[in-house]
Amino acid sequence: xxxxxxxxxxxxxxxxxxxxxxxxxxxxxxxxxxxxxxxxxxxxxxxxxxxxxxxxxxxxxxxxxxxxxxxxxxxxxxxxxxxxxxxxxxxxxxxxxxxxxxxxxxxxxxxxxxxxxxxxxxxxxxxxxxxxxxxxxxxxxxxxxxxxxxxxxxxxxxxxxxxxxxxxxxxxxxxxxxxxxxxxxxxxxxxxxxxxxxxxxxxx
Length: 204
Hints:
This protein is an alpha+beta fold. It has 6 helices and 4 strands.
């Protein structure tokens, strides 16, 4: 094929292609597009702002069904009176108090301890030796610190008597009353008190 004819043929094809592309743009009227309709904003949703009740814990569900451990209030009140120390207690001297390890070595037992007894509520009966009942937390903390230095598992807890705050200083707990025998003798000798073994009150 002659090159001139070929060039004309190619040019014709280009013009036809351009016509196909630009014909709709130039000669075809554009269709009217539908206007965009904006829907009105929906009403604000109503939110319930009433307070939500606190969830009930599993412990609260069963607490009413569980009996509290037995506790002798009269015996504890008697111990509070017998072990009441004066307010001007001052520095408590426990230098002469034997260490707990020394007392336990002297009173070593030959028989194994018996199984702990249970009260009517099913709790193990535990006991503490009430050493003193004092009127200030500072006195209680000082006495507890000196007993702990000697190896005794001492602690204090607050109670009220006739609307007045007081603090009990106790040693224990132990599962046998007899385990306090030599300890009571030693504490009474050094502190010049009449300590008393009472039922251990579970902390609330």
